[in-house]
Amino acid sequence: MTSPPRRTYRSTLRAAQARQTRHAIVSAAGRLFARDGFGATTIDAIAEDAGVSRKTVFTAVGGKIELLKIALDWAIAGDDEPLAVADREPVSRLMHQDDPAALLRGWAKVLAEIDHRVAALVRAMEIAASLDPAARRLFKQAQTQRLQGARAVVDRLVDLTALNSALTADEAADIAWLFADPALYDWLVRQRGWPLDRFAQWLGDALCRQLLAQG
Q1: 163: helix, strand or coil
Q2: Are residues 135 and 199 in the same domain?
Q3: CATH code assigned at 109
Q4: Closest to 34 measured CA to CA, from 211, 168, 186, 165
Q5: Residue 210 and residue 6: Cα distance in Å, rounded?
Q6: Residue-wise pLDDT tens for the chain (215 aa)?
Q7: Are both 58 and 136 inside the same structural domain?
Q8: Do the beta carbons of residue 49 and residue 31 sit within 8 Å?
C-alpha cells in the first residue's frame, strides 16, 4: 500500500523547486531589465542569468511583459509573497494612524524604501511603454495603482479632518500621486546623490506642507 505522506512530501518538494526556479527567473529578469533596459534584454539572456533553459522561462513564468510585471510587483512588495502592499503590516498600521503628520512622514519612508527597489525598473518600463503596446498598458496600470494608493492616504486625511482646505480631495490625491512617483527618487538619490534617509525626510516634509491644513 502506497503511503499518502510520501506523495505529499514529493508534491511539496516539487512545488518548492518550482517556486525556487520561478524566483531565480524573475530575479534575473528584474536585474537585467534594470541594468540593460526592457528592449535590450532577451529571454535568452534571462535564461542564462537564471541558469535555466529558454523553454523553462516561458513555462515557469511567461514572456517579457509577464516577467516585467512580476519583477515590478515583487520589487514593490519586497518579496514574492502573494500579499498586497496595502494589506502588509507597515502600511496597514499607517492607515490607522491618528496623527496626520506621522501618517504622511511614515508613508514617505515607505515610499522611499519602495523607490529604492523599483526606480530602475520603473524607468525601464516607462521607456518600453513608448515602444511596446503591452508595456504601455502595464505602465498605465502601474500609474493607476499608484493613484489608488495616494487616494487611500488622502481619504485617511479627510477622515481625520486634516486635509488642506485649499484642496479638493481629487487635487490632493493628484499631488500625493505626483510625490509618490519613483522618478523623484531617481532624480534626487540616484542622480544627485542624496542619502535615502534625507530623501525620505524631504518627501515627508513636502507632503505635510502640501496636504495638511495650515495653522
Answers
A1: strand
A2: yes
A3: 1.10.357
A4: 186
A5: 60
A6: 555 566 665 677 777 788 899 999 999 999 999 999 998 999 999 999 999 999 999 999 999 999 999 999 999 888 777 767 767 777 788 888 899 999 999 999 999 999 999 999 999 999 889 888 999 999 999 999 999 999 999 999 999 999 999 999 999 999 999 999 999 999 999 999 999 999 999 999 999 999 998 75
A7: no
A8: yes
Report whether 175 contacts 167 (CB < 8 A): yes
Q: Is the dihedral of CA 79, 69, 38, 136 positive or negative?
A: negative
DSSP 3-state of 212: strand
Domain containing 165 equals 83-215
Q: Which of 122, 155, 114, 124 shows the shortest CA–CA distance to 141?
A: 122
Provide the residue type at 23 as one letter: H
What percent of the chain is helix, strand and coil (3-state, nearest 5)? Answer: 75, 0, 20
Grid cell at residue 60: 515557469
Task: Kindly report the backbone phi and psi dihedral angles of residue 51, in degrees, each rounded to the nearest multiple of 5, phi listed first.
Answer: 75, 30
Other CB atoms within a 10 A radius of the CB of residue 26 amount to 26
| The residue count for the chain | 215
